[in-house]
Task: structure prediction
Amino acid sequence: MKIERVDAVTSDIETFAYVYCLTMVITRVKMFGKYRYYASFKDVKVMTNSGTAFVQGTALSEEAAIQDYAVRIKFQRMILPRGRTVNVWNLKC
Result:
């Protein structure tokens, strides 16, 4: 039996988006006089045990919302826009 071992490349969310040609969408919502930011990749869903889900990061700044999104998608399987699936194992958070 032949075994090929490959080290997974660790990357940040910007590099991950570049490699898979993804667009980050930031939504700004004003609530009680303050803005709340929501971040997610455009047209991307996360696979769960019961199907698929739309996941987004939330925070009081754009950068923090993107960071929260990175934490939420790490170790998940994502469905990309053209139906391709990818495992998000080595994302720096």
In short: The longest strand covers residues 24-31.
